[in-house]
């Protein structure tokens, strides 16, 4: 393929952006809080009530008027008790104390709570040794958030702390963005279900599990996962079924290079697929298409190529829509010298050593699936960089 004009990675990324732009228009749905973990708020959420909703005690102790403690020690009659959920708290008469529990409503007139451990109780009286400032151990209504104020901004990926705040505000459901529904289809007559016995020339389908789980890790929903032989009609049937399952995005592996049975090309080129060879290694062959109005992003079959291609071209959008952070990038110091292919952006598998040092893991072959598993980062070597010496800086991202 030396004669082929290779397309820069950035150009393919731009083409993928255009193809996948419709996925950015997300609908929303109302889901119960218990089902909303890791979903993303569609709009900003305001609290219908104040937090806390009423003035309440921060301690088990005695509700008092701070002015009654101007001269201490002082002994006050304990006139009654207010427990949590006690209903209307009534009023505290001057010169008296009310026994109060944590979370119970503070009676009108009271402006401080003296913790039980700071008092001595005898019969129906309580003795308090020192004065208190107004407001001590009293949680004012709205001191956390006022009614009608913003509880969460739009685009919040909901963790349990966010869901707790929604529950505290008395909400039962939350309006969240719909998740991108993705189907993954592995192509190749040599593929068998992982775990099945291998006949001559057969290999387990590694890309299916790789892409399906990578979709989920990037915040997408997997609605179909298929495996088809190198027959265009079978691939079309798999696409149809995936679309029937609600797929909004189809991902394929294999069948787009220069062999005699390139099933993805056979099906999609007549439909106007854009087939390309990129200036990258691994992952040169790539294709983009639309099938029955659904975008199709086609990756090469070699497992390292397809995984890396997903990470480069599809994962960023899924993560963005799911409110997930991008993988951490770091400039690290290369442990050994290496040569990169001229005119190709090379993505090498690496492992971080102590401090800022990084070493490559195994070679650059796109079939080295175990070496990829032994890696914890990718070293991104630009097209124009050919020779790197030990001690040179390289850009990396975490896997
Ligand atoms: P292809 O892109 O279809 O020419 O496949 C390139 C190489 O990747 C071949 O060695 C295939 O056997 C291998 N391959 C294709 N699909 C898969 C898959 N789903 N899992 C593991 N290896 C694959
Ligand atoms: Mg193939």
Quickly describe the structure.
With 399 residues, the protein is α/β, with parallel strands linked by helices.
Question: Can you describe this structure?
Answer:
With 399 residues, the protein is α/β, with parallel strands linked by helices. The chain has seven helices and 28 strands. Strands 7-4-6-5-9-8 form a six-stranded mixed beta sheet, with no helix packed on it. A six-stranded mixed beta sheet has the order 16-13-17-21-20-18, sandwiched between helices. It has a five-stranded mixed β-barrel with strand order 22-25-24-26-28. It is elongated, with a radius of gyration of 32 Å. It binds adenosine monophosphate (AMP) and magnesium ion. Residues 187-188, 254-255, 301 line the site of magnesium ion.
Bound molecules: adenosine monophosphate, magnesium ion
Which segments are poorly predicted (pLDDT under 50) over 5 or more consecutive residues? none
Radius of gyration: 32 Å
What characterizes the major β-sheet? Answer: 6 strands, mixed
Shape: elongated
Strand order of the largest sheet: 7-4-6-5-9-8
Structural class: alpha/beta
Span of the ends, CA to CA: 30 Å
Q: How confident overall, as mean pLDDT?
A: 96
* Range of strand content: 25-35%
How many beta strands in the DSSP annotation? 28
Key terms:
single chain; 399 residues; alpha/beta; six-stranded mixed beta sheet; 28 strands; binds adenosine monophosphate; binds magnesium ion
């Amino acid at each position: 393929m030396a004669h082929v004009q290779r397309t820069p990675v950035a150009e393919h990324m731009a083409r993928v952006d255009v193809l996948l732009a419709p996925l950015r228009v997300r609908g929303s749905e109302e889901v119960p809080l218990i089902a909303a973990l890791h979903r993303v708020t569609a709009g900003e959420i305001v609290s219908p009530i104040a937090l806390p909703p009423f003035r309440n005690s921060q301690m088990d102790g005695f509700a008092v008027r701070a002015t009654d403690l101007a001269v201490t020690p002082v002994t006050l009659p304990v006139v009654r008790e207010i427990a949590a959920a006690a209903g209307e708290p009534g009023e505290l008469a001057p010169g008296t104390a009310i026994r109060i529990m944590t979370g119970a409503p503070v009676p009108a007139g009271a402006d401080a709570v003296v913790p039980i451990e700071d008092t001595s109780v005898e019969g129906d009286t309580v003795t308090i040794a020192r004065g208190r400032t107004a407001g001590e151990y009293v949680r004012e209504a709205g001191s956390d958030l006022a009614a009608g104020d913003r509880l969460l901004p739009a685009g919040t990926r909901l963790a349990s702390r966010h869901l707790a705040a929604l529950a505290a505000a008395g909400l039962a459901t939350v309006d969240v963005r719909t998740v991108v529904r993705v189907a993954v289809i592995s192509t190749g007559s040599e593929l068998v279900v992982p775990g099945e016995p291998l006949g001559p020339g057969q290999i387990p389908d590694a890309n299916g599990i790789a892409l399906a789980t990578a979709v989920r890790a990037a915040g997408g929903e997997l609605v179909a996962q298929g495996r088809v032989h190198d027959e265009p009609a079978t691939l079309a049937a798999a696409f149809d079924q995936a679309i029937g399952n609600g797929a909004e995005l189809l991902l394929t592996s294999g069948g787009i290079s220069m062999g005699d049975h390139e099933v993805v090309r056979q099906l999609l080129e007549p439909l106007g697929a854009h087939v390309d060879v990129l200036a990258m290694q691994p992952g040169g062959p790539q294709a983009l298409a639309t099938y029955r109005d659904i975008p199709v992003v086609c990756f090469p079959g070699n497992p390292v190529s397809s995984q890396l291609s997903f990470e480069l071209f599809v994962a960023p959008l899924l993560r963005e829509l799911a409110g997930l952070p991008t993988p951490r990038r770091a400039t690290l110091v290369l442990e050994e010298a290496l040569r990169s292919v001229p005119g190709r952006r090379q993505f090498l598998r690496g492992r971080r050593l102590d401090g800022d040092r990084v070493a490559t893991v195994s070679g650059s072959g796109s079939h080295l699936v175990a070496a990829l598993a032994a890696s914890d980062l990718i070293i991104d070597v630009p097209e124009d960089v050919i020779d790197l010496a030990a001690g040179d800086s390289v850009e990396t991202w975490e896997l």
